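Thread amino acids onto this structure.
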């Protein structure tokens, strides 16, 4: 692949590097850059293999194109690539922000990043000076991790090597997180920057032969949630989960249920947002997800959503369960036998069947081809008359059914959106009448908005309709065509189980 320059690229020779590296790993060496604030340079080693220039540029673009507030939040919790570094036409590494000082402690006589693995064992000699968080602190760390995964999945990113070695935590209130090795992230369906690394003991038994995907991330997130809240480095879904004391019964029940579900087949594992809701003590909507697609190129228009504004690292406040006064000071445990862990009350029959144990590799996950559209009569693109409350005796339109659904209400709650329910109803009805495709001009006529504002509102509609990052609503043809996947819309909003 020919080298293509990026506006934010930096020449290797232009960097003023400190003489001694900060650290070395299997894929690269990290060195502080003088004169650039707290930036560091990760230089790939020859053993790391070929670098995918395009994938690294995509990571840089994502961070650079975020709104200022979101970008500040992302860079505050991730060592995200901010610029590629090249020597001639060869990418040698990238620039990122240095690990903040609050995530470093003197461990074994050296300043060391405080990895999440210190949360999974009783303090040993090396980490005996670390202040272990109480159960409120642990739930805060778990909540911050789940929110970050939710954000990245919403933008179509697969984390891949999600483990206790890549997640740092601040060992003092307010408990916060910081994620390393972000150049290992990739777009769902796209290629990684390098061959993806894997942490021993954090493998997904159902990972496809093509490598980690969104479902693999969900399994590893369940590992992280269960292990942090149980202080157990080896527990896995399907085994007995013995939680630390102090969680409210409702939260402990929800955590145990989600952890048990993660042992299920592909497509049934809990998504990150369900962990967020469980920790916050909110009711959950379980939405059946379509199978993951296998494509050869990175997604150009990944679906996005905006989780709660406090999605990353917050001081542990009233929203997180604190230990009750009766909690003993020494570490004891609340046993949740696997036989008593609650399971989902029903599983849609269309979900994938469990993979037989004798198969060495799970089958590739793919979306069945949609049937050809049924020819319809030409429908004028005008504002449908049925955009308000349903009229008794008249069947609800597709748009009305979507905006009246519990899944849409949940999307509306977590996504700040400028488009009204009436406009979403009219847009869906118009797209349904035209086999799922309209020009942006036609969409603007449907929702009574000028063309220049319609493009912005289509982004707002995507945040509402693209549940779990899947492309229900997309913009194509250079953002000139609005495309609605009617089959995915039906699956995401109507094939669901609501739990009180």
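Threaded sequence (500 positions):
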């Amino acid at each position: 692949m020919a080298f293509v320059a990026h506006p934010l690229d930096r020449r290797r020779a232009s960097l003023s590097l400190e003489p001694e590296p900060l650290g070395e790993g299997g894929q690269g060496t990290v060195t502080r850059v003088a004169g650039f604030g707290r930036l560091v340079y990760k230089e790939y080693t020859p053993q790391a293999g070929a670098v995918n220039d395009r994938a690294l540029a995509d990571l840089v673009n994502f961070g650079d194109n975020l709104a200022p507030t979101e970008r500040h939040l992302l860079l505050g919790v991730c060592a995200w690539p901010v610029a590629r570094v090249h020597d001639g036409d060869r990418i040698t590494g990238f620039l990122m922000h240095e690990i903040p000082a609050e995530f470093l402690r003197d461990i074994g006589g050296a300043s060391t990043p405080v990895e999440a693995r210190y949360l999974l064992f009783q303090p040993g000699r090396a980490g005996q000076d670390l202040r272990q968080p109480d159960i409120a602190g642990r739930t805060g760390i778990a909540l911050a991790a789940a929110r970050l995964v939710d954000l990245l999945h919403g933008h179509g990113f697969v984390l891949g090597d999600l483990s206790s070695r890549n997640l740092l935590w601040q060992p003092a209130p307010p408990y916060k997180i910081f994620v390393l090795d972000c150049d290992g992230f990739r777009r769902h369906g796209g290629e990684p920057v390098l061959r993806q690394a894997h942490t021993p003991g954090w493998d997904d038994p159902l990972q496809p032969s093509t490598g980690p995907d969104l479902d693999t991330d969900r399994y590893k997130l369940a590992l992280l949630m269960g292990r942090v809240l149980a202080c157990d480095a080896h527990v896995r879904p399907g085994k007995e989960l013995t939680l630390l004391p102090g969680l409210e019964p409702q939260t402990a029940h929800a955590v145990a249920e989600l952890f048990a579900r993660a042992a299920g087949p592909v497509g049934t594992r809990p998504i990150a947002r369900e962990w967020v809701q469980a920790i916050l003590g909110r009711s959950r909507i379980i939405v059946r997800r379509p199978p993951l697609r296998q494509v050869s190129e990175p997604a150009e228009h990944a679906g996005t959503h905006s989780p709660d504004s406090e999605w990353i690292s917050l001081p542990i406040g009233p929203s997180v369960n604190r230990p009750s006064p009766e909690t003993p000071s020494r570490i004891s445990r609340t046993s949740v036998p696997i036989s008593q862990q609650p399971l989902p009350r029903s599983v849609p029959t269309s979900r994938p069947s469990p993979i037989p144990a004798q198969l060495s590799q799970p089958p590739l996950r793919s979306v069945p081809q949609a049937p050809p559209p049924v020819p319809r009569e030409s429908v004028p693109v005008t504002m449908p008359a049925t955009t308000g409350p349903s009229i008794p005796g008249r069947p609800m339109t597709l748009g009305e059914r979507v905006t009246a659904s519990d899944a849409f209400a949940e999307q509306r709650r977590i996504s700040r959106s400028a488009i009204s329910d009436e406009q979403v109803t009219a847009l869906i009805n118009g797209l349904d009448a035209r086999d799922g495709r309209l020009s942006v001009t036609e969409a603007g006529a449907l929702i009574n908005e000028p063309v220049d504002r319609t493009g912005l509102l289509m982004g707002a509609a995507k945040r509402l309709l693209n549940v779990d990052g899947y492309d229900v609503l997309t913009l194509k043809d250079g953002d000139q065509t609005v495309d609605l996947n009617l089959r995915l819309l039906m699956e995401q909003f109507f094939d669901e189980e609501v739990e009180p």
